[in-house]
Design brief:
Layout: H1 10-20, H2 25-28, H3 30-46, E1 50-57, H4 63-71, E2 73-81, H5 86-91, E3 99-103, E4 115-120, H6 130-140, E5 141-152, H7 158-164, H8 173-181, E6 184-191, E7 194-198, H9 201-211, H10 223-236, E8 238-239, E9 242-247, E10 249-256
Parallel strand pairs: 1-2, 1-4, 2-3, 4-5
Antiparallel strand pairs: 5-10, 6-10, 7-9, 8-9
Helix pairs in contact: 3-4
Length: 257
């Protein structure tokens, strides 16, 4: 999308998110913040709020970390992200806590020990083999351990996909449930549409650039191409002078069998 981040590789994903983190991510990550609040609510409702050890995958700037710290009693934290700079972003949140940070691709990394909770917000869509990753997480959790995460369903960011032909491929809800059922008891599975409004299609592209989600594929925005994109977006996805962008997250709380 905007920003010309190129094809989907881990290096490009890390670069796009890394570029967005220092100054702009928190301001623009509207849907991401709502998603973290929803995940936190599911955990609160489960009344599973005390953990010896927690692994958070893709901690980013700490939106989910804040909720976990506020709600839970956690003795040992392990935080992970593709972007090494995220360590600085979360260090102030965990001052006085026992914690460590591991930079890298969680699907390929070895994590020491085992965990009572594995949590992750808006990361699993980047995992190439979700089924194998779910199996790996099962192996990292203690008996009865909790897996809390979200990802996205088909139709996510459909406005962009329809106009550019570019986007990620997402498994449907039933497919995700089937992957999980081999290793977990699904305690809660929810989905929703989060519709953001913007003043113009250019603002949509800027939002995607500043939150890193433009790592779905490079787009060379010549003046003519940008003009045609904006015109088509306004014609198809606007109302009362505003344009829309739709996120379609699903949310999972599951326990290790």
């Amino acid at each position: 999308m905007a920003g010309n981040c190129g094809i989907v590789t881990l290096d490009n994903i890390a670069r796009c998110f890394g570029n967005a983190l220092p100054h702009t991510y928190q301001e623009h990550a509207l849907a991401q913040k709502l998603i973290c609040r929803k995940l936190a609510g599911m955990l609160r409702d489960s009344k599973e709020l005390q953990y010896q050890s927690v692994l958070e995958i893709g901690c980013g700037t700490g939106n989910l970390t804040r909720w976990l710290k506020e709600m839970c009693i956690i003795r040992q934290w392990t935080l992970n992200d593709l972007c090494p700079d995220c360590k600085k972003m979360v260090s102030s949140l965990l001052s006085g806590e026992k914690w460590q940070f591991r930079a890298g691709d969680a699907s390929r990394m070895d994590f020491e020990g085992s965990f009572d909770l594995i949590a992750s917000a808006s990361v699993f869509q980047w995992i190439a083999d979700l089924g194998s990753f779910i199996c790996k997480l099962h192996g990292l959790l203690n008996a009865g351990g909790v897996l809390l995460f979200n990802s996205f369903l088909p139709g996510n960011l459909y406005e962009i996909v329809e106009l550019t032909g570019k986007g990620l491929s997402y498994p449907g809800g039933n497919a995700v449930r089937n992957m999980l059922s081999k290793y977990f008891r699904v305690e809660d599975f929810q989905s929703e549409d989060i519709v953001l409004t913007f003043n113009s299609p250019k603002e949509v592209l800027e939002h995607m650039k500043q939150t890193g989600v433009n790592a779905t594929g490079g787009e060379l925005w010549t003046p003519g191409k940008l003009k045609r994109f904006c015109k088509a977006y306004e014609e198809r996805f606007s109302e009362n002078g505003k344009v829309f962008l739709t996120y379609r997250p699903y949310y999972v709380l599951a326990k290790r069998k």
